[in-house]
User: Fold this.
Amino acid sequence: MLCFRISIEERDKIIAEGYNPVLNVADLPTHKAEWYAVLFQIRKALLQKWNEGNGDADFFLDTEWHHDRCICVEVTNERMLCVETLWIVQQALRDSGSRFAVDICNGWVFLRTRDGENFPNFNLFVEVSRVAIYSESDELYGRFSAVCRK
Assistant:
């Protein structure tokens, strides 16, 4: 798995411009169907290991489709921040045969540190062959970079 760290500026550019956006309005109906198909495949894969919902769950999905090819998974439980999550998402993307990415990020309201503080912001942009990591926490970055090929 190829992983690399990105700066806040690089993260903000990805978020502002969208990941592999659909530029042709005529393609939007097809894109919308594909977007939901990939969303449900990601959900199905994650539910094999994690619980979806708010509160005591592990994650929730942004189910409002976008003009880009990115699915957002908001983590609400720190136990989900492991390499297995990356592998599950990468496999689901491979199985979908799509050109999508999954943004695994912190659920701001729900994800807390063990001390009850807001969890440091992060975005893990997972693609079929690589993961771009933005994290305010060196410790969190270290969890993932330790198993990534350089």
About this structure: Strands lie at 2-5, 59-61, 70-75, 101-106, 122-126, 130-135. The helical segments are 8-17, 28-47, 83-96, 138-145. The first strand starts at residue 2 and ends at 5. The chain is about 35% helix and 20% strand.
